[in-house]
Design goal:
Helices cover 12% and strands 38% of the residues. The protein is mainly beta. A hairpin with a 2-residue loop joins strand 10 and strand 11.
Length: 128
């Protein structure tokens, strides 16, 4: 158990992989399918009454992370555009109702810049 705990405490900025950044929290994507929503059966749970029970999911498909809206009431947006399905790129800003999430893939610079922010992640200059 100690090894797992110690591994978790190492800075995420030194690791390669994909992450979601939500209000100063970095959530590594360690499964091929990650579900997001309001109820506890989801992998990532948000306490927001306006969020659907099963709002969205992120699936690793052929080395790309793909975001799917699960027929949510409030919709799922990427960079301000409503989507049903979207291949995610590092730096994309995902909006689930009132929740802002940044997707980061193998880019430690974006992770370190976004960890100090709680809102306004869309103001980062992503160089795209």
């Amino acid at each position: 158990m100690t090894k797992n705990k110690d591994a978790f405490l190492k800075p995420f900025t030194n690791r390669r992989g994909a992450y979601l950044v939500v209000n100063r929290q970095i959530i590594p994507l360690v499964k091929e399918k990650i579900t997001l929503g309001r109820i506890l059966e989801n992998d990532i749970v948000f306490n927001d009454d306006f969020l659907s029970r099963y709002h969205a999911e992120i699936i690793l498909e052929e080395e790309h992370y793909v975001l799917y809206d699960k027929d949510s009431t409030g919709g799922t947006y990427v960079n301000g555009v409503k989507i049903n399905r979207c291949v995610l790129n590092s730096g994309d800003l995902i909006s689930l109702v009132n929740i802002q999430i940044m997707f980061v893939n193998n880019n430690s610079t974006l992770v370190s810049k976004s960890t100090g922010m709680t809102q306004g992640l869309g103001s980062l200059h992503l160089g795209r």
